[in-house]
Amino acid sequence: MTNTSFFDLSTPVAFAGEQSTDPLAFRFYDKDRQVMGKRMEDHLRFAACYWHSFTWPGGDPFGGETFLRPWMHGDDPLALARQKADVAFEMFRLLDVPFFTFHDVDVAPEGASLQESNDNLKAITDIFAQKMESQKVRLLWGTANLFSNRRYMAGAATNPDPDVFAYAAGQVKAALDATHRLGGANYVCWGGREGYETLLNTDMKRELDQLGRFFAMLVDYKHKIGFEGPILIEPKPKEPTKHQYDFDAAAVFAFLQKYDLMGEVKLNIEQNHAILAGHSFDHEVRYAYANDLFGSLDVNRGDDLLGWDTDQFAMDVKELALVFHEMLQHGGFTTGGLNFDAKIRRQSIDPDDLLIAHVASMDACARGLLAAEKMLADGALTKPVGDRYAGWDGSEGKAMLAGERDLEQVAARALDLDPQPRSGRQEYLEGVVNRYV
């Protein structure tokens, strides 16, 4: 199989305008369009992920693979990995995305030892480097899979066995080395099994201390090799464990403060994980900005009728518009981007379904970005919020917050006050958002 035989499309997807009905053409994503002084491509910084796109076979707990990808079947794992890389980079070219992302074991087969696994990863990294010389796509981030292999059934950094901790360190070192070699802009850590299934066999303090030490070593090594991008933690409250220590943005904030990692580690926020934690996507983004933790985004969605991480392609324009509204107020991404940590449904078995899903979601993101731009230009949300808190910009409000008034002084002033409540205007603001999306 050559690298062009998997997809029917041969030329990159192009912008065709709003009137187009071609599922393999962009209706809203015009990469060169200026949005608040920056190209749309530079705002959105799309990344295609390796694992869901090229490693998931289409199985679920009740049925096996449906995709029948040719690179998933054969006797030579490295040859299959090279074949998979050919198809992956062809998809990156056809979608014209500026970035991609990967886990170590998704791009290279695990060996019988850590050394063999590292050698396999290096071999595929060499192939990636060669392909990147002739393509525009760059690496948004790399990461290590510390949750699939049975050795990690009780966690990686939080494992009760120090030898598993050491093995995880070796795997992360190799993955960061590969990310650095490929010029990655960030390095991500998702603690899929850094948590517990029952407290009956768990020493929580010990496990958190282990996790804090692991990140400290990772940060030290990052500086030693000159990796300039941030380390990113991806919060998730549960799945596969009952409770994960990186529950949400607030839990990670507390963890980073306790283990003196602020400024070194930021957040990679995912929509589906935010929902599982009982938050909205824009809540987690706003919290991250409020505490100087914003790094990057996984852009996907869950199913409102299902209570687990379904990783569907993001299509909700209103939700995306509110997230971009948060981001545009703070200047948007620096090293981060929009990573499609999403998989097509197991019934979407045609190769082009993979392209169509990305195109549709990229268009949804573009529509959300344009709606956010208009809302900001009109002050549709910022002005009502500013008006609501305007009292704190007055002399007394500023004095109280600056510590220029003590409790007795504030209480004495209150004796002459008769404050009355003002409407929060929730329904009005919900209606305002609907005008733009």
From TrEMBL:
<feature type="binding site">
    <location>
        <position position="273"/>
    </location>
    <ligand>
        <name>Mg(2+) 2</name>
    </ligand>
</feature>
<keyword id="KW-0963">Cytoplasm</keyword>
<dbReference type="InterPro" id="IPR036237">
    <property type="entry name" value="Xyl_isomerase-like_sf"/>
</dbReference>
<keyword id="KW-0479">Metal-binding</keyword>
<feature type="active site">
    <location>
        <position position="103"/>
    </location>
</feature>
<dbReference type="InterPro" id="IPR013452">
    <property type="entry name" value="Xylose_isom_bac"/>
</dbReference>
<dbReference type="GO" id="GO:0009045">
    <property type="term" value="F:xylose isomerase activity"/>
</dbReference>
<feature type="binding site">
    <location>
        <position position="270"/>
    </location>
    <ligand>
        <name>Mg(2+) 1</name>
    </ligand>
</feature>
<dbReference type="GO" id="GO:0000287">
    <property type="term" value="F:magnesium ion binding"/>
</dbReference>
<feature type="active site">
    <location>
        <position position="106"/>
    </location>
</feature>
<feature type="binding site">
    <location>
        <position position="311"/>
    </location>
    <ligand>
        <name>Mg(2+) 2</name>
    </ligand>
</feature>
<dbReference type="InterPro" id="IPR001998">
    <property type="entry name" value="Xylose_isomerase"/>
</dbReference>
<feature type="binding site">
    <location>
        <position position="270"/>
    </location>
    <ligand>
        <name>Mg(2+) 2</name>
    </ligand>
</feature>
<keyword id="KW-0460">Magnesium</keyword>
<keyword id="KW-0413">Isomerase</keyword>
<dbReference type="GO" id="GO:0005737">
    <property type="term" value="C:cytoplasm"/>
</dbReference>
<keyword id="KW-0119">Carbohydrate metabolism</keyword>
<feature type="binding site">
    <location>
        <position position="298"/>
    </location>
    <ligand>
        <name>Mg(2+) 1</name>
    </ligand>
</feature>
<dbReference type="GO" id="GO:0042732">
    <property type="term" value="P:D-xylose metabolic process"/>
</dbReference>
<feature type="binding site">
    <location>
        <position position="309"/>
    </location>
    <ligand>
        <name>Mg(2+) 2</name>
    </ligand>
</feature>
<protein>
    <recommendedName>
        <fullName>Xylose isomerase</fullName>
        <ecNumber>5.3.1.5</ecNumber>
    </recommendedName>
</protein>
<feature type="binding site">
    <location>
        <position position="234"/>
    </location>
    <ligand>
        <name>Mg(2+) 1</name>
    </ligand>
</feature>
<comment type="subunit">
    <text>Homotetramer.</text>
</comment>
<keyword id="KW-0859">Xylose metabolism</keyword>
<feature type="binding site">
    <location>
        <position position="341"/>
    </location>
    <ligand>
        <name>Mg(2+) 1</name>
    </ligand>
</feature>
<comment type="similarity">
    <text>Belongs to the xylose isomerase family.</text>
</comment>
